[in-house]
Predict the structure.
Amino acid sequence: MKAEQQLKLQAWVDGELPEGEARQVAELVRVDKEAQAIVGELRLARSILAGNEPEAKLPESPQFYWNKIQREIERLGKPEVASRPASWIFSWRRLLVPLSGVALIAFLSVLSMNLFHYTAVDEGLKHLVEVENLSEHVGSISYKSQSENMFVVYLYNKEQEAEKDPELEPMDDTLVQ
Amino acid sequence: MSQRPFSRRVSSCLLAFLLQCGSVSPTVAAELKLEAKLIWATNEEKSPDPSHKPVDPATAEKLRKIFKWKSYFVVNRLVKVVPSRGSNRFELSKQCTVEIRELEGPRVEVKLIGDGKEVHKTTKSLSRGEWFTYAGDDKNESAWFVIITELDEK
């Protein structure tokens, strides 16, 4: 038997079918043994349930009972702060999480600046100077005057220096107009 | 107080941290305002070129402490901004140009260009108050200097 038919049988047992359909189902039950068996089981289950369903009785009148529930709901719905005593501790606790976040961000920022911008490598690079002669005719001497805080790169003409050592000669092309 | 899950709070903090990192990095890689001066040095009292003006007494005194010449004259002075991770050219005379590039570190790469040809390159950090000087001998016992300093004002 199809599920749809079983549902119809159940509705018939519960008296929920319209008259026309109820007649058809009654005819089916009359001729079909399987339908009879299902209807029998359904009626049996119904009688068992109807006879043993616990009956809940309110300890007071229904009006008073439901009013009590409504009052309890209203009481719980009120803001929690109103029921608590006002205290500066609660105010501080409210600020604790954002303050902790800000402190953490500040700490990590300082840490990241140190990591990214002030490493030992950077400190080493501060004192590292790279000099490169881009012309084969020019040599250079570089030095740092600590007292005057001046870094000097002195250029000289290599070819003339070789000819007239030790005096450094002027470069062929003067840079001053 | 809102009862947000802990993972959302951690995510917010992490996001703020990353934004903070992002906002910090560009401030370190700042542009440089530099002054470049071309100076001519001689043992004569006056320069044969009337356009040359003597350097200020403090500069002259500082140069005399290191170099042998008595008189120092300003041939040209330029103030330019070198953009962060960029470069700028200082054409101090027809023959003398310096190209300065701002590098990571922060460091600067100073390239001396004479008559359109690259002559020398120096890469170093440039701190406030420090003078970076290119120098060389010139005719008749004179000398030239290119002095580069970072200016305080932006």
